[in-house]
Amino acid sequence: MPTTQAAETRITVTLSPSPDAPELAPQFLGLSYEMRTLLPENGKYYFDAGDENLVRVFQTLGIKSLRVGANAVDDPRVAVPDIKEIDQLFNFARKAGCKVIYSFRLKKGDPANAARLAEYIDKNYADTLDCFAIGNEPDFYFKTYGPYRDAWKPIYEAILKAVPEAKFEGPVTSRKIYSLEFADEFAPGGHLKMVTTHNYPLANGREAEKDLPGTRARFVSNETHTVYQRIYDGIVKPLQEKNIPFRMDETNSCFRGGAKDCSDAYASSLWVLDYLNWWAAHHIQGLNFHTGDTVNGFPVMVANYAVFIHQLDGKTFEMRPVSYGMLAFSQAARGKTMDVKIDGADDMDFTAYAFQSDDGGESVMLLNKSYGLDARTATVSIKGASTKAHWHSIAMEQATGDISARIGVTLGGAEIDPNGAWKAKWHEVAAGDGVLTVTVKPASAVVLRLATSQ
Fold first, then answer.
1. Which CATH fold would you assign to the domain 29-332?
2. How far, in Å, CA of 411 to CA of 395, rounded?
3. Residue 220 three-state SS
4. Which one of 115, 395, 424, 438 is separated from 208 by 20 to 30 angstroms, measured CA to CA?
5. What ranges in 198-240 are assigned the alpha helix state H?
6. CB atoms within 10 A of CB 228
7. What is the tens place of the pLDDT at every residue in 18-59?
8. Is 439 exposed, middle or buried (0-12, 13-18, 19+ CB in 10 A)?
9. Paired sense of beta strands 287-290 and 29-34, if any
10. Whole-model pTM?
């Protein structure tokens, strides 16, 4: 429902440095693809360093991590990519400026072949490789840790023999299950770069589609944070206490390809911006959003949650609403997260996040997720922000404030064009008496940066 004649709420956001916060991980924002995406289709490769539009999309969105694997990596109907496909992938990633998480088959896997390919990757693309992974969501076919370990370890050891300094992530499970046991066994060896699991916090896409208004409401509700908190308490916090990094190397809104008219609607723009910031503030290594023109192994599945998909010409892209939330995040997320205190928004779906970098840069993201009959304009006073220079701002919004809309989304008054280019107009915001005052319309977000941090 479009937003009309919103009431006003006055909110105070107070920022303070968080000296113990780590720097935002350099590969925080990532995408995840099915392994079959590496295989040529009608003689054409998806990942192609000569595809200037796809390279531009990655660079515009600020994608720094590219994970390949997912269901297709363990699907016997999908061929295992070889050297030619690996060359295509890594040459693309190198040009796009991102690191690769490369997966090998676990289910009926071939240790010798995995070792051969890992050695080739290390020899030719060590600068573009983040780490290796083995398998995908093994908890669906190895219900307990012992059988999983017995299948995983021979491939791990074969790769280590070929590449003695190799780094791995794992166990790449769909949930917590035996991830802590895995970490306890393999982290001390020095080759486990991070523990990884998957999460789709808004559940099954088909179930979500049975109540579209209710599902969209959950996308923008602060109550969804309780789902994130359970994951943090159950796995991230115990790992952090042992100084073991954690990453979600596959995530998105709803599993089974997302929910039509939700995962591909403007609600997803607000959801993903909040989701990225929540996890950045909890200091994980990052998130890889599952995407592609289609997903799954076989049969293929419609990707309602796709960040972008090819248009019919095969050269340009339809940029989905979720891409705008990612773009907004990448405009401001740098340095260390700051502590943020919010007053006056207890009964409102409003969130705020901030970053501070060593070069004096600061940034703030304000999300007003109220909409429809509950829409309220937020007049936000920001205390603790630097007033030593001018601030600039851009807004993420939909033309009519409609969270169900699939078009009309802009950031800084501009769309991302089908070639992946984006040209926004930043507006100057003056600070007076040590306070920034910003108006955030319903169903919108405002990104602010110090002029010195641009």
1. TIM Barrel (3.20.20)
2. 6
3. helix
4. 395
5. 205-208, 212-220, 225-231, 237-240
6. 17
7. 989 999 999 999 999 999 999 999 999 999 999 999 999 999
8. middle
9. parallel
10. 0.97
